[in-house]
Write a structure and sequence with these properties.
Length: 66
């Protein structure tokens, strides 16, 4: 069972917490939102998530870090 949580940052942006890892919005296309791992820049992580109306519909790749 996956743990999903939405957190509002002080800047008013939403962050998706998925199994303890944070994801930032990459882009929105239609009714889909594409999220990518917060460790993408620092760690080169390629994991991303697609959501529709706050429901996770797709998970791409895995974290390359703890
Ligand atoms: Zn990651």
């Amino acid at each position: 069972m996956s743990s999903i949580q939405y957190v509002m940052t002080s800047r008013g942006n939403r962050v998706l917490s998925y199994n303890g890892h944070k994801f930032h919005v990459n882009t929105r296309r239609g009714y889909k939102t594409y999220w990518r791992c917060a460790g993408r820049v620092a760690k080169g992580c390629t994991m991303s998530i697609t959501t529709i109306e706050d429901n996770v519909v797709k998970v791409n790749n895995e974290h390359n870090h703890e």
